[in-house]
UniProtKB/TrEMBL annotation:
It comes from Capitella teleta. It holds the Pfam family TPR_8. The keyword Coiled coil does not apply. InterPro entries: TPR-like_helical_dom_sf, TPR_rpt. This is Uncharacterized protein. Keywords: Repeat, TPR repeat. It comes from the Eukaryota.
C-alpha cells in the first residue's frame, strides 16, 4: 500500500504505511528475513524523506538501513563460507583439484575477512589447501619448478593452520 501512496505522491500516508510495516517486521522471527525487510523499508522511507526535502531525516534513516545491510551481508557471507567449503569438498571428491583449490582459497579469504583472526574453520580450510597442493605436487613431473612451488605452498598452509 505504501508503494501505491508513494506513486500517488501521498507521502504522509506512504510514510505511515512504511513505518507501520517496519514496526510489524519485528514479529517475523527469522533474523535474516527481518534484517533484509527492514533494510528495504528504511530505504523506501528515506526516498520519501528525500522527496519531501527532509535530508537530515533521510540521512538518519539511511544510516539505520546501512546497519541492517551490514547484518545481512555478514549473514550472507557466513552462508557463502559453508557453500564454498562444500563446493571445495565436492570438487575434491570429483578429482578436480584446481577447482577445489580455488574454492578453498576463496573460502579462506572470505573467512579471514569475516573473522579477522584464525578460527577452526580457517585452520581446516588451510589444511585442505595444503593437502591439495601436496597432491597436485605429486602429480607433477619430478624436478618440475611447479612441484617445488606447490610443496612450498603446502608447507606454508600447514604452518599457517598451526597458528
Amino acid at each position: 500500500m505504501a508503494d501505491v501512496y508513494t506513486t500517488l505522491d501521498d507521502h504522509d500516508n506512504a510514510l505511515q504505511c512504511y513505518t507501520d510495516a517496519l514496526e510489524e517486521s519485528h514479529k517475523l522471527g527469522d533474523e535474516k528475513t527481518v534484517n533484509a525487510l527492514q533494510n528495504q523499508l528504511l530505504n523506501k522511507i528515506a526516498v520519501v524523506h528525500v522527496t519531501n526535502k527532509q535530508y537530515g531525516t533521510a540521512a538518519d534513516t539511511l544510516e539505520k538501513a546501512l546497519d541492517y545491510q551490514k547484518n545481512v551481508q555478514s549473514s550472507i557471507r557466513g552462508d557463502l563460507l559453508g557453500m564454498m567449503h562444500q563446493l571445495g569438498t565436492t570438487y575434491t571428491l570429483s578429482g578436480d583439484i584446481d577447482k577445489a583449490i580455488e574454492c578453498y582459497q576463496e573460502c579462506f579469504e572470505t573467512c579471514q575477512d569475516l573473522h579477522g583472526m584464525m578460527t577452526p574453520e580457517m585452520s581446516s580450510t588451510l589444511c585442505n589447501l595444503a593437502i591439495l597442493y601436496h597432491v597436485k605436487a605429486c602429480i607433477q613431473e619430478d624436478g618440475d619448478e611447479m612441484e617445488e612451488d606447490l610443496l612450498r605452498r603446502a608447507h606454508q598452509c600447514y604452518q599457517e593452520a598451526l597458528k
